[in-house]
């Protein structure tokens, strides 16, 4: 074979297979981001509830998540839970559990930070205008919270998208795994690995870049 | 005298068992401007905050136009619609243009039509010299400009009374007068106001009556002429002296008494 390595991507359905893998990645990431946002909101409200046990619980959760490598958590859930509780979790469900466990704590902390960063006199001056409690939230507090939160939440989201690559370690056939399968088929082609990984790199870039641009633009607009 | 627009009767307020207001009473007539002065921590700001319900009183009563407004929890927002308040910090809503800041209260709290309020807002902005900032974002405004907008925002609610809580305390000195001139203009227009301030010359210029508050009590009350030039109580005399400085060229008998007392 004298072709350039990149041509193998256009043989048969290889490129579609890669895109299929990318879809697995994205589906997992989007589900994680969605669940993390919902649970993160609960996390933030718990943390701000003023109850000592709730605060302790959230702090502990956050510390675990920050210090524990995600890969270890993945193995713990995928292999460990299967043995310990006899749960036969498939890779994608395990990954969703682990990434949501991580994402919810990080997102919760971001939401908490955004909520508490709004000065108290914003509430007071809105109240002084005779707005009801609900209107104060609707027109003054929530819009400002969202503005502070969105750029950071988007950055977290791109980190989640990138981190999903780890699931290939627990037998989920996402984009990286598909790439390796393709490389395996074309082992005679010495530069196959380079081109396949390069294209995967480009795919990740194309997915994450718009998010980053959006975050940066929002940050500028709302600074 | 006519029925006062605001009656405050013997209000008490403590934070963590420290008495901040210990039996303060005061009447304000329609169109009257009262200025409340006193050393920091004397309870002046707390008094204003009690009037519009940002703090609840421990005892005593507050009446607005014959209606008791203290001790409510439910429809406090209705009371606040009639009481304007401007604070020390620039408290415009940073995510809204000046005009949206101005429209929020009248359209959402009072349900007035947007176009009508917008026309009125433009007239008032013109009056305070900020017509060209109507559609700017607050962060492009100077501190003095923000406070003028905050005054317009409070006035557009057409309140029965306006409470001003040290509105120039956070401003650079050169911006103080542009804000206070607006207040004097409002006073001339007949607005009823209760003003807490550290600007003594402004207080003298704008007040119909001065209240000197210390340790949660009204220690002295009188016209600005009497209070500033012939204060009756020793405490008021000491307080007013703290605003003057002895010249370094003045040596001899007249010892400065800036730090006397306390």
Question: What tags apply to this protein structure?
Answer:
heterodimer, A: 223 residues, mainly alpha, MetI-like fold, 8 helices, 78% helix, 0% strand, flat, B: 262 residues, alpha/beta, Rossmann fold, six-stranded mixed β-sheet, four-stranded antiparallel β-sheet, 9 helices, globular
What would you say this structure looks like, in words?
The complex is a heterodimer of chains A (223) and B (262). Chain A has helices spanning 14-47, 52-67, 70-85, 91-116, 120-128, 133-163, 175-185, 192-222. Chain A is mainly α. Chain A has one domain: MetI-like (MetI-like fold, Orthogonal Bundle), CATH 1.10.3720. The longest helix of chain A has 34 residues, at 14-47. Chain B has a single domain (6-241), classed as Rossmann fold (3-Layer(aba) Sandwich). Helix content of chain B is 34%, strand content 23%. Chain B has a 6-stranded mixed beta sheet with strand order 6-7-8-3-9-10, sandwiched between helices. In chain B, strand 1 and strand 2 form a beta hairpin.
What would you say about this model in short?
With 223 residues, chain A is mostly helical.
- CATH homology superfamily of chain A: MetI-like
Top-tier CATH class of chain A: Mainly Alpha
Helical content of chain A, roughly? over 70%
Number of strand elements of chain A: 0
Query: Treating each run of at least 4 consecutive H or I residues as one helix, how many helices of chain A?
Result: 8
Q: Whole-number average pLDDT of chain A?
A: 88
The CATH class of chain B turns out to be Alpha Beta
* Overall residue-averaged pLDDT value of chain B: 91
* Largest sheet report of chain B: 6 strands, mixed
Q: Return residue spans of chain A where pLDDT drops below 50 for at least 5 consecutive residues.
A: none
Give the count of helical stretches of chain B.
9
